[in-house]
Amino acid sequence: MTELLIKNGFVFDPINKINGEKMDIAIKDGKIVAAVNEKTAEIIDASGLTVMPGAVDIHTHIAGGEVNTGRILRPEDHVKDVERKTAITRSGVGYSIPSTFTTGYRYSKMGYTTVMNPSMAPLEAKHTHEELNDIPMVDKATYPLLGDWWFVLEYLSKDKIEECARHIAWMLSTTKGYAIKIVNPGGLESWGFGGNVHSIDDQVPNFCITPREIVRGLAKVNKLLNLPHSIHLHTNNLGLPGNYSTTLDTMKALEDIYTGDKPVCHITHLQFSSFAGDGWGNMKSAADEISKYINNHNHMTFDMGQVIFSETTTMTADGPFEFTLYQLSGHKWVNADVETETSGGIIPMHYKRTSAVNAIQWSIGLELALLITDPWKIFMTTDHPNGGPFFAYPKIMAWLTSRKARMAMLKKCHKKAQKRSLLPSIDRELSLYELAIVTRAGQAKALGLPNKGHLGVGADGDVAIYNINPETLDISKKFRTARRAFGNAAYTIKDGEILVKDGEIVKTASGRTMWLDVNTAEPCVVDEDMKRRFREYWTVEYDNYPVFDHCVKVPEKITVKASV
Amino acid sequence: MVDQKLRATIITGRTIDQGVGKELGKGSQEYYDNAAVVFLDKADMMKLGIRNGVPVRVTSKFGSVIVKARKFPRGSMPGLVFMPCGLWANAVCGDATYSMGMPMFKGFPVEVEPAPGQPVLTLDELLKEEFGRGL
Amino acid sequence: MTEVKSVVCPICGCLCDDLEVTVENNAIVKMKNGCSVCEAKMIHGYNSEERILKPMIRKDGKLVPVTMDEAIHKAAQILTDAKYPLLFGWSSSTSEAQRVGVELAEELGSALDNCCSVCHGPSVMATQEIGIPTCTLGQIRHRADLIVYWACNPWSSHPRHVERYTSFSEGRFEKSEWKDYIQKVKAASGKKKLEAAARQSRVIKYQPPPRPQTCTVDAPPQTIQKMGRKMIVFDVRKTMTAEAADYFVQVEPNKDYEILEALRCLINDQELDVEKVGGVPVEYLKEVADALVNCEFGVIFFGLGLTASAGRFRNIEIAISLTRDLNKKTKFVISPMRGHFNVTGANVVFAWQTGYPYALDFSQGYPQYNPGEFTAIDLLRRGDNDATLVISADPGAHFPKSAVQNMMKHPLIVINPDLNCISRLGDVVFPTQWCGIEYEGTAYRMDHVPIVLRKVVEPPEGVLNDEELLTKILAEVKRIKAEKAAKTPPKSTCATKKEEAN
After folding, report:
1. Tens of pLDDT along chain B (135 residues)?
2. Are A223 and A215 in contact (CB under 8 A)?
3. Which residues of C, range 170-199, sit inside 8 Å of A by Cβ?
């Protein structure tokens, strides 16, 4: 079938420990192979170009009920950024909550080939999947929100880990999800009556359980089920000054579950969980304390949740946090609680350099990424669109790889932020090799995707080629050139097909939706009692709850064998 | 003293009978029976000197239609008349939206007067009259 | 004979999914759990004499049956010949069909609107102004101890709403109010019997209590003090829903804004210097305000009485503002009572594909949005569009007469399973399958919960479903456009269409 040969590029493939070697990459039938027939294969001359595996985004809100409510909420966000229909692409709108087609196209233009949607209310899973079907160009998956699901709270409060695991397995397959997502554990259930929890040992009303027990329980469940990714956690007290102590408590609470092999938890958008101070007035960075802990422990992974100075839209299942933002800003506010499972909220946000808090947040994200010495532990995200829109990634890449770039931005920031920032004391600049880790290899590894994030034989034929010659271009000095190159891939290759050339879409593809089929030794029994509970807990019948096979257009079922 | 005309505010909306009628089919007898009507307050009916089921003419500045009068069964609502949504109600509704897309379905003035002996047109007859078309 | 369980009702925004349907010889013969409207459709309506079985084209003023290919070609010809068509409807179709609809509109550079513009369009506009604190219906079933129906009448328009999701449903933290209601009904019927007996015998001199001419508040205020779930209804007339309520406040037409604003003042501890607002004595409003503030979890459901009355989206905005204010004191949510079973889906699908929920225009090659400009009624009123495609909606019965008259000035294509008003008026009329009865697909409940509609019987032979039909029309449109482009070198692209029209 189709054969493709990428010749003479500078290859950065950290999983296979290839650091800028000049070599060829061969793809056949959508997979990386050792060699192809040079005479018949399509040849890409990559001499003088940087070749990396297709980029992976571990956490980006691109589809589902919350995202779409954000779209409906914000016509003013779309009107400034429109995409015309072309002969091969659909029209759409962009900016902080792009329409589905535009989302796929823009990711692809930056060399991304895999993106993970981190937040899906199980009850609305079909919606998420319908949108994912309409996001072209990339492979994708989605994490169901399970931290405040009544079944979980009930089983864990009785310490029934195995039963809980069987139900989680059932839920992952039923919603065609990929990982266990936990948001403000216990807080969302409390928000059902307008409350919240404020430490990991607060009691969740009506359920006799604490956030600590929920997180620990689900981390154990995750282990029992052998899921490829760890639990994916949005911590308690997120976004509030002084919350770093809660974050430290959470990390400490999980230490003993780690057995030395795989990380047991991924704390997402760490920037929002690393605030010191006891109020907005003296809020400051806790990147130092947090990174010290992380540098001494190996049981977790993280992503940045970097803030970009721009207009954007915050959206999270953390309903009480969005309510706090509403009280702070008085801005238009959506609250969207989902029965038995979760909550949600949306507030538009404008991160300003002139705001001390925003500028400190911007600094925290970069401090964390630079102070945590092991790039396999912390990955690049903006928690799109919460910290900023994903198409600003090239800016972050510039800040990470160039001290000059970030100091130029820091100089424009609020004086207080400049004074409190740790950035002036940090000289570290990520190399292209490290950048490849934080943008693809590390993310793929943390997600447990064996065929993504590298260019070894057998990997998916997903490749990004950038117009950067590491021999002639010093990206730490010429950061603007690098930024442009990262924003407009010279080539994006997905499953061995060239989708983007010189930053333009040349071909469209639909991309697959990966989901877990978790096989437990003893399957979750769906008996009359469970159906009765179903009818009591939800307003949808048991038979109508699942995401049916036909709801996922191009599925990729990943079978997992659980040890329970 | 019997008034010839009732000046009232009209509201159009759903009734369950109209709902059943529309699901049975727009051409059904049920739809005709339950949509080609106007509900009036008991006191207003007395003022007009009409009984349940007699034809009345409902006129707004956008149009006019003959439907059957019915007594509104619950509470009182003098000066308010109610028509189930449908072809007949829309003969008197206006298309001004105040730049918001939503036409005038509720809360505008109409006049109701008895129309003894005049026919309440069926769906097909009214379509023919208003749009000059049919099957 | 087969029994199908968990069938989803394809009628209103409640999307009840617990119907049990008995099928015999490919016909629904019996069903359980449905309301009367549901039974009307599922047992009789879907299979009535008015079912369209063949595509029809109007020739010499009469609709005559033609082949499917001829009708598809004719429809595509109309759409491509038109400078600025309008595609309207979508609310009783599946989200799969709506997806194709957006693509068709984009291909044509046309206007695209759904029924939302004549029901909860103003609610969408208000949401875009200040957001909306809301939740799914189950959350209300489990937690709400105060339910307010404002300017809506679920008893008629969403017959099982009260039973399944609010006062009469039973949740984890809130019990059903059904028993209380039965007691109330018994008391009321006792009173009625007494009255009837008095009228007939004339022996017992029964004097009904005098009703004030400008009656405002009907139920005794003390009901609001009782324990358990409470239900308050605000409406201009005493609906069936109002009859079931603990407290009914009758408001003057077009005065909702004032009353909502007065309630906002009251819950924010401001004094009102007037005795009445919108026909309601302030003392009653004070009691309502107390109830609103003191509940554990309250909800306001609102209907077309707010969206279509004077003020339009401002009414919704003030209702949402009230809810926002209440959230500083307790937990409160607000939710629109969406009408058709998938009108929410039309908003959802349009929004994920284009960023905007309704009132769309593709004349520039990219999506544009402006209610009041690209909404169907406004386009028709100004006579902007020169062809119309109506799918799964009946503007013939539900648009003001003048709007339909303007629609009739240009070619009209209608896609609908049976002969509704607009298909009686069409130039090209397509039959289609009943979604939720004859084919499956996704619909979105009023609270945005997606539910897959089920297929229970086989469709009539040769009748396509909405998605298949639209896909064929889209393919034919593309073919005709390519043919035209080949004949006349580059000029008319969809992007320049509207400029030409001007």
Report:
1. 566 899 999 999 999 999 999 999 999 999 999 999 999 999 999 999 999 999 999 999 999 999 999 999 999 999 999 999 999 999 999 999 999 999 999 999 999 999 999 999 999 999 999 999 887
2. no
3. 170, 172-173
A496/A49 Cα distance (integer angstroms): 18
Say whether B80 and C253 touch across the interface (CB within 8 A).
yes
Question: Are residues C320 and C219 located together in one domain of the fold?
Answer: yes
Chosen domain end from C315, C336, C357: C336
Secondary structure percentages of chain B, helix, strand, coil, to 5 = 25, 30, 40
Q: Do chains B and A touch (3 or more CB pairs under 8 A)?
A: no
pLDDT of residue A469: 96
C127 and C240 assigned to the same domain: yes
Flag whether B1 is in a domain: no
Query: Which residues of chain B does C156 touch, with a Cβ-Cβ cutoff of 8 Å?
Result: 13-16, 18-19
CA distance A457 to A292: 37
Taking the Cβ of residue A338 and every Cβ of chain C, the question of whether any pair is shorter than 8 Å is answered with: yes
Chain-chain contact of B77 with C404 (C-beta, under 8 angstroms): no
Instruction: Retrieve residue C331's tokens.
Output: 């937990």
The length of chain B in residues reads 135
For residue A336, the chain C residue with the least C-alpha distance is C135
> Are the Cβ atoms of B23 and C218 closer than 8 angstroms?
no
- Low-confidence stretches of chain C (pLDDT < 50) are 201-226, 495-502
Task: Give the domains, in start order, of chain A with CATH numbers.
Answer: 71-401+440-447 (3.20.20)
Residue window 158-217, chain A: list those with CB within 8 Å of chain C: 192-194, 206
User: B124 and C254 in contact by Cβ < 8 A?
Assistant: no
- Closest partner residue to B91 (CB to CB) among C153, C211, C401 is C401
pLDDT at A534: 87
C492: domain CATH number is 3.40.50.740
Q: Which domain holds residue C94?
A: 51-118+341-501
- In the complex, which subunits touch A with 3 or more CB pairs below 8 angstroms? C
Task: Look up the ipTM and state it.
Answer: 0.96
Q: Is C103 at the interface with chain A, CB within 8 A? A: yes
- How far apart are the CA of C350 and the nearest CA of chain B, in angstroms? 17
Task: Give the residue numbers spanning the domain of B99.
Answer: 6-131
Q: Which of C282, C306, C336 is the endpoint of a domain? A: C336
User: Residue A124 pLDDT more than 70?
Assistant: yes
Domain presence at residue C204:
no
Round to whole Å and give the CA distance between A340 and C284: 35
Helical packing angle, C121-130 and C313-326, nearest 10°: 50
Tokens 């928000």 belong to A191
Beta strand spans in C289-431 (E): 297-302, 331-336, 360-361, 368-369, 387-391, 412-415, 428-430
- The reply to whether B96 falls in a domain is yes
